[in-house]
Design a protein that fits this description.
Number of domains: 2
Distance between the termini: 27 Å
Strand order of the largest sheet: 5-4-3-2-1-12
Strand content: 5-15%
Order of helices and strands: HHHHHHHHHHEHEHEEEEEHEHEEEEHH
Radius of gyration: 25 Å
């Protein structure tokens, strides 16, 4: 049969609709909608669908029947596909085929979670109790969290839009990322969703006399967990605001040139450099210590293209500030995405410090497995693949004031600021770093919510690593973020302009996240193993998946 799922539609439809509703609610959590409050309810439709479907399908009580049920896989896949397609569709403005493959792959994780949820929902059976509800909620939160960790690591990783990122506008709860990363927030969101649904179902059962009324302390425990994290976050924010001691400052100016991006009609390099130079002259009036240009706004090398080189050399010859720019760079016949830091004008013509981007974007900067699967190269919009850099080093700048300590910057190019594992690697390798600096070119995504979504994922690096973040984009969102994740200044939009300000910070310490990483993943795996072992002992036979 060409469409094997057609015969399944009548029994599948209620479950499919509930899964689709959850997929759409998760889309609403992220830009441009930003309905953060829905995070605590987003999984309710699909969990209710699982509950009522399990009541109708008695065969589902056998584990083997659950894991081979095409209805469950279809509904879970639909939920994941809607969620990722609804939040990542804008990547298709660069590579439609690559985006489809990316979404099709990532939808597998919610599908697996939904089948697991149904299986464990059935395994509980009997009455709904407070202890049982908390155990199921902890297990399902753990499975979802492990899934998010896997997709952020497997095949070089793409961990965008974890459910914890939905809390990017809740500053107190965001502080949880310094203790356990975004995945700790993900775990909490899923845990509260599951407890809420099972508590509501238990109230209904008790109201109808289907089970005995007993004290409900499961929902109280879930709310207490949220309250504890919120209170700890508020305490940290108040402490950070009142903390004395040495504070460092940096006057910055971020240039947002809004240079159009097109492979078919490239923007002339001479016009691009002229626009950036004009904006830099405006920025110089602010007397900044550091001027930022975005990631490679035109597809040329600042060192090799004559027009770009002349304009840049002229600027470097007189500028009283440090300049960090994005550019393509060639070395040993390899192409790199680079950040170059030029020191203030000096007679000796000091060479720039160069950082080559370490973590490349699949289908955007290289074709995965292209050597073995040549057709994959056709999914990449560029003729050449970029090569990854190997040194996640710092660049160092000096302020104009005599006696000031050098400021150590960690360049993060493009999506590198959205990768918690890479950010942690940099912080562990360089505990003396002062400021995270992201230069990006979201101009490829035009007026889509791509830049805002990128920024929503990025602000958590400041919290996790206890370092301020400066962000300079070609368009979209250019901003300064404090160590707490609070946005201190922003230039949001698609016009050209300059964001100037003064960034203040206290020397960052080693956060629990930097020290221990995603410990919540290890805890989740242990909890899953304990639950499976307990279920096996309870049934007295081997679990067959």
């Amino acid at each position: 049969m060409i469409f094997p799922f057609l015969p399944l539609l009548p029994p599948l439809l209620p479950l499919l609709l509930s899964a689709a509703a959850s997929g759409l609610l998760m889309v609403a959590l992220f830009p441009p909608w930003d309905q953060t409050w829905l995070a605590w309810l987003a999984l309710w439709p699909v969990l209710l669908g699982v509950h009522f479907d399990s009541g109708r399908d008695k065969a589902g009580r056998e584990a083997g029947a659950v894991w081979s049920d095409r209805r469950l896989w279809t509904a879970g896949y639909a939920m994941g596909f809607l969620f990722f397609a609804g939040t990542l569709w804008w990547i298709g403005l660069v590579t439609a085929a690559g985006t489809f493959l990316l979404v099709a792959y990532m939808a597998l994780y919610p599908a697996l979670w939904l089948v697991w949820a149904r299986w464990r929902w059935e395994a509980e059976g009997g009455e709904l109790t407070s202890a049982g509800n908390l155990a199921v909620a902890a297990e399902l939160a753990s499975v979802w969290t492990v899934g998010e960790w896997l997709r952020g690591w497997l095949f070089t990783g793409f961990g965008w839009n974890d459910l914890g990122v939905a809390l990017h506008r809740n500053l107190p709860l965001m502080q949880g990322a310094r203790w356990g990363g975004v995945l700790l927030l993900t775990w909490l969101v899923v845990f509260v969703n599951v407890v809420g649904v099972r508590s509501a179902l238990r109230f209904v059962r008790e109201a109808r006399g289907r089970q005995k009324v007993r004290p409900h302390w499961d929902f109280g425990v879930a709310m207490l967990a949220v309250a504890v994290l919120f209170s700890a976050g508020m305490s940290h924010l108040l402490h950070a605001g009142r903390e004395g001691g040495e504070r460092r400052t940096l006057r910055f100016a971020a240039i947002q040139p809004d240079i159009p991006q097109s492979e078919d009609d490239p923007f002339p390099p001479e016009k691009a450099i002229r626009r950036q130079l004009d904006l830099t002259e405006q920025a110089a009036l602010f007397k900044p210590d550091l001027v930022l240009w975005p990631e490679a706004p035109v597809g040329v090398s600042a060192r090799l293209n004559p027009s770009y080189r002349r304009g840049l050399d002229g600027l470097v010859s007189w500028m009283p500030f440090t300049l960090l720019i994005g550019s393509l760079d060639y070395h040993d016949d390899l192409l790199y995405n680079a950040a170059m830091l030029f020191s203030p004008a000096r007679p000796d013509g000091e060479a720039p410090q160069v950082y080559w981007k370490n973590h490349l974007v699949p289908f955007g900067e290289y074709a995965p497995w292209a050597d073995r699967l040549p057709f994959m190269r056709r999914l990449v919009p560029f003729v050449l693949d970029f090569s990854p850099g190997r040194d996640s080093g710092l660049v160092t700048m000096r302020k104009r004031e005599a006696g000031e300590e050098p400021i150590k910057l960690a360049p993060l190019i493009c999506f590198e600021d959205s990768l918690p594992l890479y950010g942690r690697h940099v912080a562990r390798l360089h505990p003396d770093l002062d400021v995270l600096v992201n230069i990006t070119n979201d101009g490829w995504f035009r007026t889509s919510p791509g830049s805002a979504m990128h920024f929503a994922n990025a602000v958590f690096r400041a919290v996790e690593l206890d370092r301020p973040l400066l962000r300079c984009g070609n368009n979209g969102v250019t901003a300064a973020v404090e160590q707490t994740g609070r946005v201190a200044a922003t230039f949001a939009g698609n016009g050209a302009g300059v964001l100037a300000g003064e960034l203040a910070w206290r020397p960052g310490g080693v956060t629990p996240y930097v020290r221990y990483g995603d410990w919540i993943v290890g805890l989740s795996l242990a909890l899953i193993a304990l639950r499976l072992a307990a279920a096996r002992l309870r049934r007295g036979r081997v679990i067959r998946l």
